[in-house]
């Protein structure tokens, strides 16, 4: 036998349930679910050669030097497709009296599979079909970065990064690590380098 009191309790419980369903449903609207976590902060782990090349990142007017095995941070907790992440990363040749040919590449390792992501990067370096980006002159020929204090001693390594939806769809929900690998050579041939 139902009473007026039990009907009111049932109506309140149904209203609470519907409210919870509404809140959860509205909370998921507009989210892309295109996110990938990378430990505490997302960033490119940097590998640099044992020559006096300095990598720096400027964020909100503050500049920090990035040493070997340190990170260039994207300043985000997740990665979205088609979102431009300004990184403002420069590279400077601080060797005395020597010019160095520089090449670099960016790649992502996703569950043990390596993806070259140079095409996601904007900056001063020229992208070649061998999966490397090179310091070049106006004719896209390899050119040495001048020694410190001379014109050409500092270049923008990564101005920004933007991941296409196809990449995010490919790696979503998997373990992701981003890397920046930099090499320097006095000759520009990089014959001893491993790609």
- Structural class based on helices, strands and sheet pairing: alpha+beta
Spell out the helices and strands N to C.
HEEEEEEEEEEEEHE
Task: Specify the helix fraction band.
Answer: 10-25%
Average pLDDT rating:
78
- Overall number of strands: 13
Number of helices: 2
End-to-end Cα distance: 79 Å
Estimated radius of gyration: 24 Å
Largest sheet: 8 strands, mixed
The fraction of residues assigned to DSSP E strands is: 35-45%
Q: Uncertain regions: pLDDT < 50 for 5+ in a row?
A: 26-40
The gross shape turns out to be elongated
Could you name the key traits of this structure?
195 residues, alpha+beta, 8-stranded mixed β-sheet, 5-stranded antiparallel β-sheet, 16% helix, elongated
Task: Write a structural description.
With 195 residues, the chain is of the alpha+beta class. Helices cover 16% and strands 37% of the residues. The chain contains two helices and 13 strands; from the N terminus they run H-E-E-E-E-E-E-E-E-E-E-E-E-H-E. Residues 26-40 have low confidence and may be disordered.
Set out the fold topology.
Blueprint: H1 4-28, E1 43-47, E2 53-59, E3 62-66, E4 71-73, E5 84-93, E6 100-110, E7 113-116, E8 121-122, E9 126-127, E10 133-134, E11 144-145, E12 154-162, H2 165-171, E13 176-185
Parallel strand pairs: 1-13
Antiparallel strand pairs: 1-4, 2-3, 2-5, 5-12, 6-7, 6-10, 6-11, 6-13, 8-12, 9-10
């Amino acid at each position: 036998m139902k009473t007026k009191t039990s009907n009111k309790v049932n109506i309140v419980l149904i209203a609470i349930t519907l409210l919870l369903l509404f809140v959860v449903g509205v909370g998921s609207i507009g989210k892309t679910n295109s996110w990938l976590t990378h430990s505490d902060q997302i960033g490119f782990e940097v590998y640099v050669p044992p020559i006096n090349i300095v990598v720096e990142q400027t964020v909100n007017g503050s500049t920090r030097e990035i040493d070997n095995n340190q990170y260039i941070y994207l300043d985000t907790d997740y990665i979205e497709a088609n979102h431009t992440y300004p990184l403002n990363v420069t590279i400077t040749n601080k060797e005395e009296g020597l010019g160095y040919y520089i090449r670099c590449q960016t790649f992502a390792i996703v569950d043990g599979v390596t993806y070259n992501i140079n095409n996601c990067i904007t900056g001063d370096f020229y992208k070649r079909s061998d999966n490397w980006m090179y310091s070049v002159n106006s004719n896209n020929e390899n050119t040495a970065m001048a020694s410190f204090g001379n014109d050409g001693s500092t270049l923008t390594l990564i101005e920004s990064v933007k991941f296409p939806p196809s990449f995010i769809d490919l790696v979503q929900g998997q373990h992701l690590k981003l890397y920046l690998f930099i090499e320097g050579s006095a000759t520009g041939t990089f014959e001893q380098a491993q790609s």
